[in-house]
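Hi V.,

You were right to ask for the full record rather than a summary. Here it is.
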Amino acid sequence: MIADKLNAIGAPLANHLWQSTLFAAAVWMLTLAFNKNQARVRYRLWLAASLKFLVPFSLLILAGDHLARVSRPAPTAFYLVVQTVSQPFHQASPSGAVWVALLPQLIAVAWLAGFVTVVSLWCLHLRRVAATIRAAVPMSEGREVGALRHREQLTKAARPIALWLSRSSTEPGVYGVARPILLWPAAISDRLQDSHLEAIVAHEVEHVRRHDNLTAALHMLVEAIFWFHPLVWWLGARLIEEREWACDEEVLRQGSAPQIYAESILKTCEFCVASPLACVSGVTGADLKRRIVRIMTQRTAQKLSASRRVLLVAMAVSSVAAPVIAGLVKTPMVKADGTDTAMGTLDKPYHVGGDVSAPKLVYAPDPEFTEKARKAKYQGVCVITTIVDTDGKPQRIQVVRHLGMGLDKKAIEAVQQYRFTPAMRDGKPVDVQVHIEVNFRIY
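Predicted structure:
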């Protein structure tokens, strides 16, 4: 049963990973187009690519399908129930069949091991961070507090940020999400001039104002769940890079001298150790050399023009609207659309009801059990949708309710051999869509 459930989610998961990868590729191309704009724009684009891993497009498609159901008449479903008595069929298991059967369980165990490893490493780092915070003491006065309060007034902070003095060598950093605090290493203050200190404080206040710890924690969740996908780790590096550049740009915009600001970062790196967690926003993150070059060259980032704003809005709307529209306009094979067209072809089949009669089953061979299902005494119902053409032959056979253990394929093979008396409309045979329940039972 576990293997069956894992098989059932395999294809949707693969589709989700593929869609998220394509979405990230589109975001990457957008960031190239916005390379001369402000770093916060690119940061938000990368964040959208990260969060896409948590939002499958299939949910939006289902939402569109639900809207379509509400906006049109209730479909007329036709179920042709075929009761078949299954008979165990003995066949030699192909080479490697045992390993193939165990593959879903092995993948699940490997994923769980990776997930636990990633989370455990982060928990270990969090324990060290918590120990550092417990050993710190709150500061109520001093030039550090004065610089922090002055910066809060300039940025119109919603509430004051608590400042704690630490005896550790960890760099100045913002800890926490709901009530962030600024942890300040005691050893660094004597090595900083007032202008250096104010620049570092300004950088940390920007992290709080931007809620960088929250967004970093969300991406850490993505990394824990999809640890096996190299793209999520690459996205994490891009997020850290752009968030630090975004803070640098804002600090320089607020009037800090580039040389003083660059010196403050270098002095921090000289005497302090960076935090190992992305959800602890410090001052020394990203590629240090590239940051210093950008700061000293003082390249002015362009603000978004009206046309680029429209482009971003259009991309955001289309990324959400496209799968919803797909759900609205699709014609599912599993349901009738409640309309009676004049075509009656394979592309637009009729549905039983009104003046369309049901096809009559005249030949239905018993489905075969797979060796795996027979040994496990596994049984159930596999629902098939098909179009019975004007010759009484099944066409476009699809599984709409999976059974697993290889029985889906066996059900399709059985239905392919079915023969019907074709459905009739106005005395003429027509193509009609039907559902067939293939029952696998052990008696």
